[in-house]
Design a protein that fits this description.
Largest sheet: 7 strands, mixed
CATH topology of the largest domain: Dipeptide-binding Protein, domain 1
Strand content: 15-25%
Helix content: 25-40%
Number of strands: 22
Number of helices: 18
Distance between the termini: 26 Å
Length: 549
């Protein structure tokens, strides 16, 4: 789980039956955990959507097998001495309609992201620190030409930053920074971009072949005009949404799919099966599951969850080891930090930022006596003896999620008499909509790292951040994050790293969230498939180097 893996072929799986395999010919049949929500980089927010977009569109950079940023649509780049200007030189590449990929495709796409100020627009201003992005995203500047991204000519893209960003090249392989062909986009009816193969252009290893929003199946096919087509061997990928681990195991065993993810009892069953165990590979998924608490008066009995002691009581009443051992059961790690382990390491020491899972033992852990102490303090402060909250969770995000939700309900209610948690399952899209519109009490949710730096998590809890679903606000925290992004610590790596720990301490002291576990993926991979790259950051699966025997 500590590194990206290139999977070699192994015995068992769908290839053993002979014939063309799960998807036919040299297509690979792949399970998706949820429906693709959008193929528009301005609207996509989930890992499954990002994976399909990345199949079909390249960024300036891409990930190699080890997860490092290497040139893609950019054949080279230069950085100014002050670290604030990047000049990318584009290679010869084409869109799937034959139009050349130009620097203006990036200018158009990035201006659009900032103008629309969607959920991932913060990557442009708060994380990428692109000059002028903050004012555009905030709505204080209508002229998107003020954004610090220009195209002096078709092959040159110049990006100006407010401050140096040490990990900026690695941001360039994230789909939010991908290009869109302006002429093609503006030729479409409003709202139709990316809703079908006819309304979507590719410049990546694959082209969209079959897709209808909301359906359980889609496919991509090899792009013959891809700039690196000689290194793409797959004919295509057939995706299928599978909602339960049991169905995933069945699909793999009956050769319907080549790559599936399983959890719970199905993992144990695969481990005990001589053939299936040869196909089982556990990889780090990177993202962390946690509880988000709405702290506004609109929810939770008039804002009861704004009480720090009540949140601390809940987070200390949860047995995370029991969650991963008895319900998730796929190699996931019980997590006691706001930044999960095994994805962000110091450039100077190489140490995992969250290697010490006992760093915040005074604030989070399974300690019923301590939880009850916090609970008594909360009842005294709020002058209430009982609480009733609703916890929302996705019913299409893996069947272990419902089990985890039920276990949390039982643990909290059992350890803190006086708290009642009502469970409300819904689709992932509905869950996100409720969280984005502050229409919930407690949410069982997750976040995956978009780049290999702790800020991909810590940036979420800045006041008014679009992903700050609890609406927590702390001036000291905001200042630390500002110092780490645009202020005093920008040019001092070790000081910045230390300050990020200070920020995380505030999150844990106030139980802004209740971290639960860092997800692993228990994959079953057909023996006929090799070369799929698995990553814990940004893009979990990359198929450019994959082959089928």
């Amino acid at each position: 789980m500590l590194s990206s893996l290139v999977l070699a072929g192994c015995g068992g799986g769908s290839g053993d039956s002979g014939g063309d395999g799960a998807a036919g010919g040299s297509y690979v049949g792949v399970m998706l955990g949820t429906n693709v929500m959008s193929l528009d980089t301005d609207l996509a927010t989930d890992g499954d959507s990002f994976e399909v977009i990345a199949d079909c569109i390249d960024g300036l950079m891409q990930m190699d097998a080890e997860g490092a940023a290497v040139e893609a649509l950019a054949e080279a780049y230069e950085v100014s001495e002050d670290g604030k200007t990047y000049t990318f030189t584009l290679r010869d590449a084409k869109w799937s309609n034959g139009t050349p990929v130009t620097a203006n495709d990036f200018v158009f796409a990035w201006r659009r992201i900032c103008k629309n100020a969607g959920e991932y627009a913060y990557m442009m201003d708060e994380i990428g620190n692109i000059k002028g992005a903050a004012a555009i995203v905030a709505g204080d500047e209508d002229d998107t030409t003020t954004l610090g991204v220009t195209a002096p000519d078709d092959k040159t893209l110049v990006v100006e930053l407010e401050v140096p960003v040490s990990f900026f090249p690695s941001l360039m392989y994230f789909p939010t920074f991908y290009p869109i062909n302006e002429e093609f986009y503006t030729s479409l009816e409003d709202g139709t971009y990316g809703t079908s193969p006819d309304t979507f252009l590719s410049c990546g290893a694959f082209m969209l072949e079959d897709y209808l929003p909301g359906t359980a199946n889609l496919s991509v096919k090899r792009n013959p005009d891809y700039w690196d087509a000689e290194n793409v061997k797959l004919e295509g990928i057939s995706y299928q949404v599978v909602g339960s681990s049991d169905n995933a195991l069945t699909a793999f065993k009956n050769n319907s799919l080549d790559i599936v993810m399983i959890s719970g009892n199905q993992v144990a069953a695969a481990e005990d099966d001589a053939e299936l165990s040869q196909s089982l590979k556990v990889t780090g998924a990177g993202y962390m599951w946690y509880l988000s608490f709405s702290q506004t008066e609109k929810n939770a009995q008039g804002g009861m969850l704004a009480n720090q002691n009540l949140r601390l009581a809940i987070t200390n009443a949860i047995d995370r080891e029991a969650l991963v051992d008895n319900y998730v059961m796929d190699g996931s790690l019980a997590t006691f930090t706001a930044v999960p382990p095994q994805f962000a390491a110091s450039d100077t020491t190489g140490e995992d930022f969250s290697a010490d899972q006992q760093r915040f033992a005074d604030f989070v852990g399974y300690d019923v006596e301590r939880a009850q102490g916090f609970f008594e303090d909360a009842k005294a402060e709020l002058e209430v003896d009982s609480f009733e909250f609703t916890m929302i969770y996705g019913n299409n995000e893996g069947d272990e999620v419902a089990k985890v939700a039920q276990a949390i309900k039982e643990q909290v209610e059992g350890n803190l008499p006086g708290i009642t948690i009502n469970l409300q399952p819904m689709t992932k899209a509905e869950r996100l909509d409720k969280m984005q519109n502050d229409d919930y009490d407690v949410a069982l949710t997750r976040w995956g790292p978009d780049y290999a730096d702790p800020m991909t998590y810590l940036g979420m809890w800045v006041t008014n951040n679009s992903n700050n679903y609890g609406f927590w606000s702390n001036e000291e925290y905001d200042k630390i994050i500002a110092d780490c992004t645009t202020g005093a610590f920008v040019s001092d790596y070790d000081a910045r790293w230390s300050a990020l720990y200070d920020a995380e301490t505030l999150v844990m002291q106030e139980a802004v969230i209740a971290p639960l576990y860092t997800k692993a993926n228990a994959n079953l991979i057909s023996s006929r498939v090799s070369g799929v790259d698995f990553h814990p950051v940004a893009l979990n699966r990359v198929y450019k180097a994959a082959t089928v025997s």
